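Running co-folding for NAI.
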Amino acid sequence: MSPHQLPTGIALLHDPAFNKGTAFTEEERDLLGLRGLLPPRVQTAEQQVARVKHNLDSKPNDLEKYIALIGLQDRNERLFYRFLAEHLETMMPIVYTPTVGLACERYGQIFRRPRGLYVTIEDAGRVGRIVDNWQDDASVVVVTDGERILGLGDLGANGMGIPVGKLALYTACAGFDPLRCLPITLDVGTENEALLADPLYLGLKRRRTRDERYDALVEELVGALNKRWPGLLIQFEDFGNNNAFRLLERYRGRVLTFNDDIQGTAAVAVAGLVAALRLSGTSLREQRLLFFGAGEAGTGIAELFVAAAVQDGMAESDARRQCWLFDSRGLVTSARNDGTLAGHKVHFAHEHAPASTLLDAVEALRPTALIGTSTQANAFSDQVLSRMASLNQRPIVFALSNPTAKAECTAEAAVNATGGRVIFASGSPFPPLTFGGRRIEPGQGNNVYVFPGIGLGVVAARSRLVTDEMFLAAARALAAEVGDDDLAVGRVFPRLSRVREVSVRVACAVAQVAFARGLATAPPPHDLDAHVRSLLWSPAYPDYAAAPRA
Ligand code: NAI
């Protein structure tokens, strides 16, 4: 149980975990020393939600909405989550991509109250003490070192907006108790010149540490976290390419951890591909995937696609040959595999003539699907898109780079250039559009469909590790949640408003793998679905008068 106890009086009104604001009842006001500290009229949660909505609607832009929402989270967490749950589709782009990206860029200017833990390179040797400063218990940590925030690059300590936002989604989408969610930012410096020169920057003003002190700090942090909370889930988020792959390999076999940019993205994209096959009427083994951008997201998707194809009976080498990578130096071919090619690309470096432009690569490989994870805005030109349409009856185009301004193409461009035949998904949301009198609702390949459910699943099973098989199970569970009504409007993902139910389905699939593979340390529940649902935290206000200190 959390050491966090119900305070009274003004301290209660200032404690976001317990505060109910104007919704404290007459009885609670008497019992908890609140009489006179609040306006006289007692409001219902519904009235409070309406007030929040009214307040947000009056804000001139999304960043102001973000600031107002974070303010609410700092004052009254239950109301924040209730509001989020009721307005998930419209609020997701505010609490997460794209607005959170803007918030991170301006973190120094919009900073109000600290949230989460900061561990800096100067804290080597005292990380355990910092972890002990966190008062509450934790069941999940999201940690970033701020080096690759969305598609925005190195934002140093400003990256804190990301773990804060991701954990808000753990609560909103998979019912994690917010008191048990711990955001952490590792500040090892930054290479961002603008931040280094910015007097309002709140991080360390020094260059990134990249030597063995970096690894030692991460090791100290992981050790301290596991010592205090054995079995804690640690999600690595928005680390630079090099560290992300290394750290995943180092820790995945030792502690309960995963990297959402690599593995979560992979599960979402593979789910989208599996669902897309229902529209194209083709099978997994008929696909030829061209990845534009060969980093964490691109190669993560490729690896999971291979795992899916192998599960469907294909030989691994054949499955790998279905995936082609194109990076900043052109098509990744075996000729480039000269010892300098990054490890995550090596298994996809096939024999082929070089191609230096995307159009050349499309021409040569005739892909069925084009997947953008490059951070290069508008790289999918009309020419590329129309060539995809001449090669395929239903070309699959996923423009996954975030935020919106970095997307490889817009939904509109993809639809127009392919005569409305494209099966499109993006990383950031695009509004619905009409083509030839037909309504099209572009699906968002948002990791939020997967990572909260994965977390819920491993926590429900008390799994020792997070495995690739779990991500594949999650991908298939997510794909199964895409209904014919979704496909009818061209959406290869379920509606965002269904994400809580999707998370439960994903969690069950993941927990099943943990039980089947002997990774679970929890006793197998009689009814897994009921067990998972019993873990969900609800933002409904408790009645403190009925059980004042429960
Ligand atoms: P990364 O930095 O690991 O990889 C970027 C890749 O793009 C590198 O391979 C790089 O060589 C390549 N690239 C850069 N410029 C290029 C160019 N001009 N032509 C071809 N390739 C080029 O980054 P990561 O983690 O793979 O993320 C990439 C993007 O995907 C980001 O915008 C990120 O926000 C987005 N993303 C989207 C997700 C989603 O939609 N669910 C989830 C995770 C990431």
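Result summary
The chain has four domains: 9-95, 114-255, 263-446, 449-525.
The domain at 9-95 is CATH 1.20.1370.30 (Hemocyanin, N-terminal domain).
Job closed.
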